[in-house]
Amino acid sequence: MNTLRSAASFCSDLIERSNRIVLLSGAGMSTSAGLPDFRGPGGIYRRKLGVDPERIFDIDWFKRDPSFFYRFHREFLESLEKIEPTFAHRFFASLEKEGKLLGIITQNIDSLHQRAGSSRVMEFHGGVWSSFCTSCGRTWGYNESVAMTFASDVPRCDSCGGVIKPDIVFFGEMVKHLEESNELAREADLFFVVGSSLNVTPAALLPALSGGNIVVVNKGEIALHYLPPERIDLLVEEDIDTFFRAVGKVRASG
Ligand code: ZN
User: For a disulfide at 193, which of 9, 95, 143, 216, Cβ 3.0-4.6 Å?
Assistant: First the structure.
């Protein structure tokens, strides 16, 4: 009995039967693209910069000393330039093109889903593709934001001198697109959780809002306080790309 193949074929059947698929993606999808894990206990930024990763995205720390965040951010932007969307990112982009996928809710800030071709992506924690002045609200696009980030320790607004902040949600700030994400989850007839340990609310509350089937693909532990185990139709503890390549193979042969 090939468990990978049977899981992949069950998953493929669920996809065939569904036409309102929703994906919630988390850090596992970024690390499988080669983006260093910056929040985990062995995370590269804790080792390299000797800092508590929780502090990097702490809004009070940012207000006190934005240079602390920007030290990390420059490394993060450099990492982003080096990575590409994975097979799994492209898999979900193709489900959207087939008209089967309603949208993606992501906890990641790397915009790999958009780079893979997905168009309806709710970035729960914002992203790096724009930034704004914390005093006057002026905004900048990706290229300007990156240029300013590398030009000084702390980029400042040339209109008012205020500190510029990328459009990333910090701890202590409201997540984005919460209403739309809740709505999307309620509409889903097949809800995928991929690369998320379901540890952080409100994202962890989303799968249970769906009345449809639920598939969880994650290597490592999953918190089940927010998602009753009996609601999970398929739980796959496998490398994300390995699994979705197997699903893609079953679909191509069907
Ligand atoms: Zn300003």
Answer: 216
